[in-house]
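# nightly structure sweep
# worker-07 picked up a monomer target from the shared queue
# config: single-sequence mode, recycle default, output format = structure tokens
# input follows
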Amino acid sequence: MVFLSTGAVLIENVVIKTTWFMAETTAKLAWWLGSSAYYYYYPEETEMDKLKNKVLALEDQVGKLTTKED
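# output follows
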């Protein structure tokens, strides 16, 4: 009886837990690869970049308004 429970514990630890660990690790790796590729092609805009774009837009508006008045 002891060997049967020891065998069940071994099967549980080796087969089930190892399979679950590999599946979980593979899913995390796939998520990491997908998010890395996404942020490589579509990087997040930093606060400095947002401010630079606003300044450029305002400079463009000022330029258009000054040329319109002339």
